Amino acid sequence: QVQLVESGGGLVQAGGSLRLSCAASGRTFRNYAMAWFRQAPGKEREFVAGISWNGSRTSYADSVKGRFTIARDNAKNTGYLQMDSLKPEDTAVYYCAADRSGWVNPHYWGQGTQVTVSS
Question: Is 56 exposed, middle or buried (0-12, 13-18, 19+ CB in 10 A)?
């Protein structure tokens, strides 16, 4: 079992920045790939960014490339999503996820944190 707890969400104006954190506990976090997903009201959950277990590989949705940065600190069992140049369409609940096999279909999920971007 891996327990994931997100934090750092909130209300920000368009053009602003937020950093989300994902604190992991349970099994060894460094053995797991990690990802961020988001779900806006009335929409399906979508992939935002993923990072391999050692940080050597990352992947981003086209909609956030160049604005968001995923990172991890295995010594702290924590993952991060730095979000810059935020847009109102980034408004969603953001979820942290983890899986040993990668970020395509992760097994473990956090409870989510709300990000609201005002125009």
Answer: exposed
Q: What six digits make up the tokens of 67?
A: 């604005």
DSSP 58: E
30 three-class SS: helix
Mean pLDDT in consecutive groups of 10 residues from the start of the chain, 119 residues: 95 98 88 96 97 96 98 96 98 97 93 97
Looking at residue 65, what DSSP letter applies? Answer: T
Cα 36 to Cα 46: distance, rounded to the nearest angstrom: 9
Rounded to whole angstroms, how far apart are CA atoms 102 and 33?
A: 5
How far apart are alpha carbons 47 and 63 in whole angstroms? 10
Report the 10 Å Cβ neighbour count for 28: 12
